[in-house]
């Protein structure tokens, strides 16, 4: 996939370490970094632009990224705490216990420069999310005419949706906590606000996507999850990478591309549930 036409994507925003308190092990993660790592695993060229702290947690994330060969040449470095979350597992399901709300990223922001924007212009897609402190940057990126995808996660407010959805092409929501009517009305509202593709993941009920013409439902691939951390991020990444690659190849009609991309996303997401942390690389602390 993507061999003929090189696709380049970038994750903008958060990197964290997820500290699993029950085993005293930290794993690299964060929505924007997960996206970049999963995209690379799916065979496309990917980069991450975020902020690193000056602690051992940051060092572990950066060492892992160097090992994976991701481009982080434009990242910020600040004195202070790297983004960090505290987590435990209950029967394979990740449970968040608290976080430092992004650490140095929250304190300093990204403040994209003209140089950064020239760099970002070369990508086929930029992915950001609710925890990446990227909202002040979205207008600058939108002006570059690059498709933007945004992960609203599960604790979005309707005010945030109303502000952000008009600026992005793809909107993603985690909706396990909502009923069917609430999900439908959220999807249609977000589409009307300007997002061209809106996707809600619903845990074991699968996913529902709307493209303005029709709804597409995707059943999950069921596995005995070792760790659900990263399941949503990997679903989103595989969907986007497949969708962008196949659209660029321009050989299939849109409905077929969406169906194939959703199917690939379900398969890839299931595999992620068999890995500890978002993508492995655990280190004792």
UniProtKB/TrEMBL annotation:
Gene3D superfamilies: 3.40.1190.20. Residues 18-249 form the Carbohydrate kinase PfkB domain. InterPro entries: PfkB_Carbo_kinase, PfkB_dom, Ribokinase-like. Pfam families: PfkB (PF00294). The keyword Cytoplasm does not apply. Signal peptide: none annotated. The keyword Transferase applies. CDD domains: Fructoselysine_kinase_like. Keywords: Kinase, Transferase. Belongs to the carbohydrate kinase PfkB family. PANTHER family: FRUCTOSELYSINE 6-KINASE, HEXOKINASE FAMILY MEMBER. This is Fructoselysine 6-kinase. It comes from Clostridium brassicae.
């Amino acid at each position: 996939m993507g061999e003929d036409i090189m696709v380049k994507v970038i994750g903008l925003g958060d990197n964290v370490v997820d500290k699993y308190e029950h085993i005293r092990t930290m794993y690299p993660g964060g929505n924007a970094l997960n996206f970049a790592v999963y995209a690379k695993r799916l065979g496309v060229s990917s980069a991450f632009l975020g902020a690193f702290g000056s602690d051992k947690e940051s060092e572990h994330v950066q060492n892992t990224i160097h090992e994976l060969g991701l481009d982080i040449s434009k990242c910020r470095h600040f004195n202070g705490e790297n983004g960090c979350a505290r987590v435990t597992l209950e029967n394979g399901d990740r449970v968040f216990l608290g976080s430092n709300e992004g650490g140095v990223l929250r304190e300093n922001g990204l403040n994209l420069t003209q140089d950064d924007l020239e760099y970002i212009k070369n990508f086929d897609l930029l992915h950001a999310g609710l925890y990446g402190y990227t909202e002040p940057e979205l207008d600058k990126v939108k002006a570059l005419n690059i498709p933007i995808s945004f992960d609203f996660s599960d604790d979005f407010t309707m005010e945030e949706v109303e502000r952000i959805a008009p600026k992005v092409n793809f909107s993603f929501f985690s909706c396990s906590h909502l009923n069917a009517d609430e999900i439908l009305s959220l999807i249609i509202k977000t589409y009307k606000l300007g997002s061209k593709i809106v996707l809600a993941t619903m845990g074991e009920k699968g996913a529902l996507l709307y493209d303005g013409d029709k709804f597409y439902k995707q059943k999950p691939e069921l596995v005995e999850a070792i760790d659900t951390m990263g399941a949503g991020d990997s679903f989103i990444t595989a969907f986007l990478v497949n969708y962008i690659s196949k659209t660029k190849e321009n050989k299939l009609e849109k409905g077929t591309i969406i169906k194939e991309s959703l199917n690939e996303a379900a398969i890839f997401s299931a595999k992620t549930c068999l890995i500890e942390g978002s993508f492995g690389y655990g280190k004792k602390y």
